[in-house]
Amino acid sequence: MLALSGLSLALALALLPAPGDALKEGECEVCLGFLGKFYKSLQDNDVKFNSADIEKALVKTCRDVKGKENRFCYYIGATADAATKIINEVSKPLSYHAPVEKICEKLQKKDSQICELKYDKQLDLTTVDLKKLKVKDLKKILEEWDESCKGCAEKSDFIRKITELMPKYAPAAAKARTEL
Asked: What sequence ranges are listed for the domain ARMET C-terminal (predicted)?
């Protein structure tokens, strides 16, 4: 009888969530952000909440994302070139409306790289001095806009191109710069 109660106590303790399982502040930034937006888009587009439809929508969404979100899609297997396929670890819990935080916790256990992804710091183009930025950062701005600077050899060429395209991609920043 005593052995049976000890066994039940051990089983109960095993089923309790460990204190280290919860996500820490700032952890899984890309996972939480991407899946949060994705879940909202599923609701807005009246997608049926079954695993197969969610998986199709996820693959479709992942075709269009860039940067860290594309890397996240690669890690879960939602891109064509992905080596692993744990997309069902996202689609199945979403089909029964599991919180995004819990999905990211489970993904972290499967692949810790998923929660190491962080969004790049966004530059405020209204106040930043383009001349003080590195060429790498100037190229990143153009890349975010899906633009390239063919024939750019010097930093001033990149700055000129960004200033030229700013009204198209960042009109508020362009307006603020002309008022200075």
From this structure: 127-169
